Amino acid sequence: EVQLVESGGGLVQPGGSLRLSCAASGFTFSTYWMHWVRQAPGKGLVWVSRINSDGTSTSYADSVKGRFTISRDNAKNTLYLQMNSLRAEDTAVYYCARGVTVATISPCVYWGQGALVTVSS
Amino acid sequence: EIVLTQSPGTLSLSPGERATLSCRASQSVSSSYLAWYQQKPGQAPRLLIYGASTRATGIPDRFSGGGSGTDFTLTISRLEPEDFAVYYCQQYVTLPLTFGGGTTVEIK
Fold it and tell me: Which of A19, A111, B9, B85 is 20–30 Å from B23 (CA)?
């Protein structure tokens, strides 16, 4: 059974940093592109970032570019999102997600339960 | 950036009725790389349709997708009580990947 479990969320002050982790199991993690998607309270889904299977290619939404870094450790079957210079508008539930197939172009079929990040003083 | 506009914002229908949701893109979505998701309160999104018209594994056949280019639709042929939720479209081919704003299907 495919499982994605996020951790590392919490309350952080504006300008602070936080690192989210997503532990993957039930599939060959090292062969799939992975994504982070966020959802502000009461709002819609927003794609944040993606990373290829070996970690050599990354992409970001403009709103987080230069502040967030996606990475992965295939030996630990874990995806990360390092978030720096956090702003109030980064407050959201952050989901990690996996594609349907190992192809680059694939929608997200498996999602974690989400990790809540709250940026507030 | 490809902007996806979903309409209507809210659809009020009764169980057993047909629901038709629209997703319009600001530019053509290459090779129909368009997906639909369902989300219920407190839950992660659930993939329903990808490639504009292919049902994901385990999705009932009352859900169907269609369209190409800039205009896409999700149809629920006969609403079941568990179908009342928020639905999002997503284009997953052109960076940045984008979602529509969502359509809420509520019980009339």
Answer: A111
Tokens of B44: 């992660």
Write down the pLDDT at residue B62. Answer: 98
Backbone angles phi, psi at A8, to 5 degrees: 100, -5
8 Å CB contact of B99 and A95:
no
Q: Report the chain B residue with the minimal C-alpha distance to residue A41.
A: B42
pLDDT above 90: residue B39: yes
Residue A101, pLDDT > 90, answer no
Tokens of A97: 């997600």
With left for phi above 0 and alpha for psi between -120 and 50, is residue A8 left, alpha or beta?
left
Give the residue from chain B lying closest to A100, CA to CA.
B56
Going by pLDDT thresholds of 50, 70 and 90, the confidence category of residue B60 is: very high
Nearest-neighbour CA in chain A from B18: distance (Å): 24
Compute the distance between CA of residue A114 and CA of residue A112 in angstroms, rounded to an integer. 5
At A52 the pLDDT is: 94
* Option in A59, A105, A109 nearest B47 (CB): A109
